[in-house]
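= Tokenised fold =
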Amino acid sequence: MGEEHGSARPSGSLLRRTAATTVTAALAVVVSLTALPSASAADHDAVRRVSSEADGTQLATASLTASVSADGRYAAYGAKGPRDGCPLPVSTCLFVKDLRTAAVRRVGTARDGTPGDADSSLVRLSDDGRRVVFNSRSANLTPESPAGDQWHPYVRDLRTGRIEAFGSAVRTASAADGTARHVVLQEPDVLVLRDLRTGRQRAIAPWTADATLGAVARHGSEVVFASSEPDLVPGDTNGVSDVFLVHT
């Protein structure tokens, strides 16, 4: 009996090692729990409102359609007027916000700062946050701006303040690559990809196709679009819209 009792009892060194291990594990749990943020703090850090005034004041009108730079510092968005820099109560104005400094700039203005006199719609903010491609019905943005409440595509350089109209009247841009140089334009009978630096363009899809935000690969090398046309590829007999990719 004595031998059996003695063999079942752990040694003192084993007890010390077990106790030390238990204390170490307990401390590790306490440290890890202490390091975890609360749910409310994590949620607060994960979500922030972009469409606000520079001082953080929330807008009284709706905001919609956004695009963000590659590094997440700049965000472009549309907001209904009236608000600071957008006096028309029925128009949508475009803004770019620097999320580091909270500075807000209006996009749809003439070179001298005159606000556009009608709606604008966002296409894309470039990856570097410098250029914005958009459409506008304003007649006072550039000398080329069409009169008569007609949509027209533009590109704005936020660093230089330069604004350029491109394409022709009653045309709209629907997508652009990350450089804001290669833009999809909706022509009356075809979708074209236009190089804003050279002015060259090529047909990429039927006019019924739909190419939207994010449809153009960097440098315009590929474009994806949706179309229900049955003759774009062989054997398309499903009778519904499909997504296609074209190499340019």
Notes: Residues 131 and 157 are 5 Å apart (CA to CA). Residues 1-43 have pLDDT under 50 and may be disordered.
